[in-house]
Write a structure and sequence with these properties.
Elements lengths: L2 H7 L2 E2 L5 H6 L4 H5 L17 H4 L1 H14 L3 E3 L7 H4 L8 H20 L11 E6 L22 H18 L3 E7 L2 H18 L6 E5 L14 H8 L6 E9 H14 L3 E7 L13 H13 L5 E2 L7 H11 L15
Parallel strand pairs: 1-8, 2-3, 3-4, 4-5, 5-6, 6-7, 7-8
Length: 339
């Protein structure tokens, strides 16, 4: 399948939360460690990306649940699979392996799904290599008393993302997804790393999806950019799609998706949280509610790719897929030359 041809025909469905589904398995510290890391000197529970190595059956199973729910695009379990993020667990040397293993889990899930009765009528699905934000930012200082200080350099971020991209590509992803962007400079480092990797390896560049995060009602990212400024900052990458995910529920995200749909010359994606977290930090929005909001966006012609982020489950994705399946996708704008 060619993802661009599919996007011309219909709204594609991206999967929902990985972390939410992992929590349902109630895994223990021993589960995270497995035999290979049973004597590791740091606690590993919470390092969800590691499960692609120690509990691959759990990750493959989650992918298959989303595929059965109607997902066309599944994300690899690699939100924190960089040397910088894995340093919290002293697992920097595992970064490349984590990306390869996670990509292979997703590929295996698609293979098993397509050969099952549930997938007999499906032509295929796409694996998106998930490239998450780092726990260190290039635009903001971690020290309030020293605003000029940075915990990491641009070159270090590029190197971290370069290794991640190499692992994802070697593992067999179909496209790359730079997501949950709250610092656009970090995202620009990821874009630079992607371009550099494909140039160095002399391979055909994979499509790139880019998804930012608006953190509050002001309509700005955490690093202070407006939505238009964010789009202007990344459009040079010529992404397959640009969109928003996380931080907001669908109700709160709507005006920002509407704005993005009016300025983007590429496809538009949106995968909001299941509402806003309650006092316990949990997400209460029912699948039918989330699907209702996204159906409205689709009817208004705002979107090309929809799905869910924090708190969403296969039930959310199933309802979303059902609600938008007969709605035409957003049409790409015809750009007029100016002289």
């Amino acid at each position: 399948m060619d993802i661009r041809k599919e996007l011309e025909k219909r709204i594609l469905i991206i999967d929902g939360a990985m972390g939410t589904m992992i929590q349902r398995h109630k895994l223990t510290e021993a589960d995270y460690r497995g035999d290979r890391f049973k004597d590791w000197h740091k606690d590993l529970k919470g390092n969800n990306d590691l499960l692609s190595i120690t509990k691959p059956e759990v990750i493959i199973g989650i992918h298959k649940e989303y595929l059965e729910a109607g997902a066309d695009i599944i994300e690899t379990n690699t939100f924190s699979s960089t040397v910088i993020a894995q340093a919290d667990y002293d697992m920097q040397l595992l970064a490349y392996e984590l990306n390869v293993a996670s990509a292979k889990c997703a590929r295996q899930a698609i293979g098993e799904f397509l050969s099952s009765p549930a997938g007999k009528d499906r032509e295929g699905a796409f694996v998106a290599g998930a490239i998450g934000p780092l726990n260190k930012t290039l635009s903001l200082s971690p020290d309030v008393n020293n605003p000029g200080f940075r915990a990491v350099t641009f070159d270090e971020v590029v190197d971290a993302y370069y290794e991640q991209v190499k692992g994802l590509v070697d593992g067999g992803v179909d496209l790359l997804l730079i997501e949950t962007i709250f610092d656009t400079l970090n995202a620009k480092a990821a874009i630079f790393a992607i371009k550099k990797y494909f140039r160095d390896s002399n391979q055909t560049e994979l499509p790139v999806m880019i998804s930012g995060t608006i953190t509050d009602a002001s309509g700005r990212t955490l690093s202070g950019q407006t939505l238009e400024a964010f789009y202007t900052s990344i459009m040079h990458a010529r992404p397959l799609s640009v969109g928003l995910n996380c931080a907001l529920g669908a109700k709160e995200m709507r005006p920002h998706i509407e704005e993005l749909s009016q300025i983007a010359s590429c496809y538009v994606s949106a995968y909001p949280n299941a509402g806003l977290p309650n006092a316990m930090g949990e997400y209460d929005e029912e699948p039918v509610q989330t699907a209702h909001f996204l159906e409205d966006w689709a009817n208004e012609g705002f979107v090309n790719i929809v799905g869910g982020c924090c708190g969403t489950t296969p039930d959310h994705i199933r309802h979303i897929a059902e609600n938008v399946k007969k709605i035409k996708p957003r049409q790409l704008p015809v750009l007029e030359a100016t002289y």
